[in-house]
Amino acid sequence: MARVAVFGGSFNPIHYGHLLLADEVLELLDLDRVLFVPAAAPPHKPTAQLAPAADRFEMVRLAIGGHPRFSASDVELRRAGPSYTVDTLQELAAAGDALLLVIGSETFLDLLSWREPRRLAGLARLVIVPRSGSAFDPESAAAQKVLREIGVEGGFVRADAPLPARGVVIVHATSLPLSASELRRRVREGRSLAFRMSPAVIEYVRVRGLYRAEPA
Fold first, then answer.
1. Which CATH number fits domain 3-208: 3.30.530.20, 3.90.640.10, 3.30.70.260, 3.40.50.620?
2. pTM score, two decimals?
């Protein structure tokens, strides 16, 4: 049974921060694969600022090209309606892999607003990656409430030791000071994207004319 990290997001656009985080999670947890899953219609984000889903998927495919243990899935592009993570995990689980879901610490604290968070936590082991400088406290009342409501046993566990069989994993991966919104602004202003995104993605953004207009 392969151990696969599911890394979802709008990837609008995908940048080196995403890639470095995925590579470190892969290494620290000794995984077989990281599966990038671009959201077609993220329920928690306005669609006005999003590039077309097909373009975001193609940028992911270009960005991860050449990495032997990165792959991309269009599962959310093939499904109509909002891109609910629980539905995605249900589909991916059919392959028989052991799934881990990579999320940020802010997302974890907001997890109870997601669709069927308890079932989601049963389909994939949660892996939290705190943002650099984040004050995420696993002992806080907010974090403990989420843990209790989603029904995960074993508490919070660190990735820097032999990984227990149960619990929500906390991984402290390198965080680059990059944001997709800043990169979109750079495109609008005609500024350099070098050393922030892969050259193939930069060229794709240029050819397709993405992010040149102000968001509606």
1. 3.40.50.620
2. 0.95
